[in-house]
Amino acid sequence: MSEVKGMGKNRFFMFQAFIIGVVLVVVMGLTRGIIYEEQLARAQYPPGIAVVGVAQKGLYSSLGPLPPAYIRAVGDGGGLLTEYWAAGWNDGHDYLGTDHRYLEVFRPVLRAGRYFSPQEQTGPVCLISERLAKELYGTVANSLGQAFSTPQLGVELTIVGVLEDGVELPVKTVDQEGSEQFQFRVASDCFVVYPAAARPLNDGPGVYRSIWLEGSVLDAARLAGYLEQLDFPASYIVNPLPARHVGDPQGRNILIAILVGFAFLVLIVASLGMFGMQMIQVLRRRGEIGLRMAVGALRRHILLQILRETMLTILVPSAAGAAAGFLLRPLLSRMALPMLFDGGLVVMVFGVMVLFTVLVGFYPAWKGASLDPIECLGRTPRLN
After folding, report:
1. Which residue has the higher pLDDT, 315 or 71?
2. The pTM is what?
């Protein structure tokens, strides 16, 4: 009967170790995700630049192509307009309508040619990526002065410059319905950059309108207020990403502290219970330990035996829990939580559980190996 009870208690602690493994993987994955998300946001958001997202008013309304007067008003207010059409929604090109000041501020790397000038703000000119230039005309040099035409834009453009492949540009903040986006810089080797006033885009899937300006969030709010006075049915979202994800490091640190504190609390409570369980197991098995030592078992044999049993009770279930937590990542990723999982995280959790198992099991094992076999086999144990 006692063996059955002992087996039941062992199963309870094995289940507890399994839960610890799951909790550690989830907490560490969430902590890494929070830190990574902020680092990614800081890396992608241009320093010293504020942004206003331009969206339609209401779900079923439409902005239509931006009128020339509106584009001029954005420039007069100090803004750098971009109309970005993602490659996945057209013929595979990243179309970017903007003005010459945007190119002068962000300075994408040129392989040949030049940026378009202020006098070409309404002209049919463009810059294309190096890969497109080579596909169309064989070499970068041969493409300068040549035509670039596509039915998606419905206009023929003259190539005045060639961009380096993979160049990164800040191009999008919100989509046409005002949903926030967290990817500001887009790297592409299929960019087609042209004056926005020459070919304003229609509303559609994958179209992102943004206004960039050198300044603070307050400057962006002032520009949005100026544009709202115009007779144009647009909705404006000022600088959404830094305000929510980058501008509150204290809140992020508090959240991480709570998560890490919760994980350590679980470990401490579980370690106390498992330590007590191991000590009770050793005391209950004094007769078995004394008998093994009487027939020739050395102290290190007893020590290793108890440690091995501790690992079977704690380490193996916790490792299984860590693997189960890792396999839950597809489900957790659907919950819009900033979680970052990889194989290294499971190895890290396994290392923590090895250390945890040694700390919990070493003293009871050492205590069992230090028992006097005569005292263990005697009817009246001697008091030290």
Report:
1. 71
2. 0.55
